[in-house]
Each structure stands twice: as C-alpha cells, then as structure tokens.
Amino acid sequence: MAKPAVIDVLVVIGTGFMGASIAKAVKQRAIAKHVVGIDSQSAQQALSLGHIDVQAESIAQLPKVFSELGVGSKESSIAVVIASPVRTYPHVFTELAPLREMLSPGQSIAWITDIGSTKSGVLKAVNNLGNLANAFVSSHPMAGSENQGPSDARADLFQSARVLVSRLPQSSDDAVAAVEEFWIALGGQPSLLPIEEHDELLAAISHLPHAVAYSLAGMLAGSPLAGAAQALHGGGLRDTTRIAASSPELWADIFLDNRKQLLAAWSEWSLHVEVMHQALEAADRDTLIELLQQASQWRKGFLS
Questions:
Q1: What pLDDT digit, counting tens, does each position of 42-56 carry?
Q2: How far apart are CA 203 and CA 31, in angstroms?
Q3: CA–CA distance, 241 with 101 (Å, rounded to integer)
Q4: Which residue of 101, 156, 166, 201 has the fewest C-beta atoms within 10 A of its own C-beta?
C-alpha cells in the first residue's frame, strides 16, 4: 500500500503511555509535520521528552496553536487521536464539536479517532461531536503495557499489532480509509469490526484476562506467601500476572464501562473453573487431561 499523505497537524488528546507512544511513533516515522499534545497531567513531560512538538492547554486553544505553528493561512489537514480515559469522552467530544467552525479557511479536519478499550461510551458520546461525526472512526489498538506514563512511550508499540477499527453510521468512507492508513503507517494491522460487537468480544479476550490477573495477584498479595511468591516466582506467575501491574484507575473504569459484558464472560469462566475444581477434588485424571488438552490445543492455535 502506498504511504499515506503526511498530516499537517496531529492532535493527541491524552499523552499518557498510549498517547505518547502514538506521538513518538508518528514523529519517528514522519507521519505528521507537527504533533500537538493536550493533557493537564503529562503533556509537559511528553514535550520535554520530545514526543510532541507543542503543548496546548485545551481544545479551544487549538486554532491559536495552529496559527503559531504556521498552518493558519494555508491548506492544511488536521487529525485528532483521543487517547484520554473513556470517562472523559462526553466532555472531549463536546469540546471538539465546534472546532471545524473555529478553523481558518483552508484548514480541514481529515479524521478523528479514539483508542478506547470499550465502545459503549463512544456510542453514547458520539452525538456530542455534532457535524464532526462524519470525520470520526473508532479504533482500538490491541497493544499496550503495564507501563503508565510518557517516559515509557515506545515508538514500536504498534508494530504488527492488530487494530480494531469500527465505523459508525455517520463515518465517511474517506475517514475510515484514512484511519486505516494511519494505523498501517504506524506498523499496525487494522481489522474492521462492527462497533456493536466490540465490547462483547473484548470482555472475553482482554477485560476478563485482566480481571483474572488482578484477582490472582490480589489473592497472593493478601496471603502468607506474598513475600516468597515475589522473591521466588518463576515464569508462570510472572507471565500470568504481568498485566496486573497496569493502572488500577484505568482498568477500574474499563471494567465498569463494560460491566454487563464482563460479568457475562466472568460467569462463563466461573462455570469452567468449577468443572475443573470438581475434577481435581475427585482426583479425576481423565477429565483433567481432557480439560487441559482442550485448552492447550486452543492456545497452540494462536497465530502469533
């Protein structure tokens, strides 16, 4: 695929680990001429680390920032990545809505995307975008880390990562194509997924695994074996609980935002755990082998 056209300005709203990683990758790959970051907590650090070129105090300040960057009086394309917590979406979308009218002649909003791990909040907030809704396409890069700040940002985070791309009824074909091209330019592998199916799928393949990891780590943290488990653990515990080192605030919001779907997945998992528990209690080796074999074969079928 041909390299996408260079964006004049990329605005990253939320410059924590994920947002800063996007900004860093964009700058390293020269995908945008200017990268602007908006985040009251971490944009200054992202700026000092060179992940962004300019820090804006708010969305309302963007026209002034664009002018200072020298893109205020000529044809220029502007793209926006929303990398702030899902709970901020109603406010962020409302603040973005008048942006098109605030721009100078020749400036245009090419596309807007988010990177939220749940999409119910997107569906509730998208109408707040007003006439910018046709430029919005939702995304979810299946990449991340237990790291939480811009100091840990990785330009290679999205290399070979699956990126779920979900159009909304208002999304234009051009916006969908541009967002797909953006993720490809970052090394990602976009896959279209109906937004209505997103949260049920992610409850099973992401949110439940995180909940299980947190639960296991929490059980050990509160046990008499806590110290020994930290000091003497092997790869099994380290690999199984790695994601439990992620941001508790972020994952509490994800769990609550996708509460219904996560509870349904949790119920199915609990039933499977109980079957294994009963087989173990009965010392039923044949059933244990059958259960483990089914799980093992499924896991070996992963593409990577």
A1: 999 999 999 999 999
A2: 32
A3: 48
A4: 101
What pLDDT, on the 0 to 100 scale, is given for residue 5? 72
47 and 150 assigned to the same domain: yes
From the CB of residue 163, how many other CB atoms can be counted at a distance below 10 Å?
24
Average pLDDT value over all residues in the chain: 93
Residue 3's pLDDT band (cuts 50, 70, 90): low
* 1 domain residue, yes or no: no
Check: pTM over 0.85? Answer yes or no: yes
Total domains in the chain come to 2
CA distances from residue 37 to 46, 47, 62, 191, 195 in whole angstroms, order as listed: 8, 8, 10, 27, 27
Statement: residue 147 has pLDDT above 80: no
Residues 6+ apart with CB under 8 A from 156: 25, 187
Bridge partner residues of 37 (DSSP): 12, 55
**Is residue 108 predicted with pLDDT exceeding 80?**
yes
- Calculate the alpha carbon distances from 203 to 119, 198, 244, 257, 263 in Å: 11, 9, 16, 11, 9
